[in-house]
Amino acid sequence: MYAGKVIQLNILADYITNIKQKEDQDTIQSDGYFELHFQSEYTQPVFLKIDNVIATLYVQPDFVYGVTVPELEKGYDYNNDAELPVNIGLIGTDTTELNILTFDYQKQFNNLFDVKDGKFLSRPMMFKRADTLKKICDKRYQTIKNPYFLNYVEYSIASINASVSRGENYLINGYIANKPIQYNHYEYMQFFNACFKGYLNTYASMQKGQTLYNIINVKADYTLLSDFLKNDKFLKSDSLRELVILKNLWDFYFSADFAPEAVESMVSQFQQKTKIKPHKKIANSMLTYFNKMQAGSIAPNFSARAKDGTVGSLNSFKGRWVYLNFFSTQNTESLREMPKIEALKKKFGDKVVFVSICLDDSLKSYNNYLKLNPKHNWTIWYNYDKAFTKTAKDNYFVTGTEAYFLINNFGYLAQSPALAPSKGIEYKLNSIFKPTKRNTKTGIR
Fold first, then answer.
1. Residue at a domain's end among 47, 67, 92
2. Of the candidates 89, 364, 369, 373, which lies 20 to 30 Å from 133 by C-alpha distance?
């Protein structure tokens, strides 16, 4: 029934904003076959979408999955905007495979929490059933070694407790405090978001003197906000305090109580000051959203200085796919990506235009870099020129000295921010220019 329809593979940019971004798509053939490519460095859920049908699949690194999407029941009107979640089918797996385990957990959950005859579960009864579910799972999965699944169970049960407000001491001390932050674990982060939603408002209401309104709307000072929270008993850790601030600033942006431009300013300050990579990534996603740089938006044009002193323009590459990156000779991580871009240029030839923008303060260091790296034979421009009122960095709202964007041949942002070469942009480009060759062998590659 899906033949001829487009199936998309979406992921979440991060687990604070939960912004979905498309990684690949394919048209389903007449026999139901489709193929989607995506590189993941860690286990995570991906979302397969056909019209408004949504199926979730947990993917592990270096693994090929054979999946089936069940047909919808006939006689129903599915032509509305509501998402229709369906359980995906898996080919060639056993009972210890992660997705099969999550299906089994959901069955145990439903046995306890699907109430018959419309009966209402009181809070004490919810607590009791959550504890019963934990005992069942401890026994049922005692031989399972998959670390993602074990945390999946723990934080799925934690989310049940959070949904009925079991108490912040119980929740934070039991599941968050003195434990590593699991940035890449979906269920952990969903629990984290539920646990700390509205946390700053609650804390501020119990303090005398300084108010959140004054810190954010009047002063828009990130350092002041961080210092304000240092006395909180749960936020002594810099990393946890930063993540809680990010979560709440994201929520504040959509609240009528706070000025969005003030929130944006504070996230920008945060992005420049934080030393924690996952936090910088989340802040980048937030700034991208705030500045309307989401995938699907028109890629802003810009002008930049070429090595011969002439001015180049992004518009000169109209009708071409463009991989745009910003770097600095003072940023060693961005420099490590440049040889990888060289390799990508060799592989994809004329299919993709590679454009690099140097963000150095010194024109001399830009010129020296080009002299020392003659093999970097793609377009490498310098960001600043006195003639520019707004630079490429300004137009793309780059707040640091490293950023990546993928622009499609129609001039729209295909991935924003895009993956760095070392983080898997090659897999994205492969999916765009992939040959039509069937892959029917499942399992570890």
1. 92
2. 89
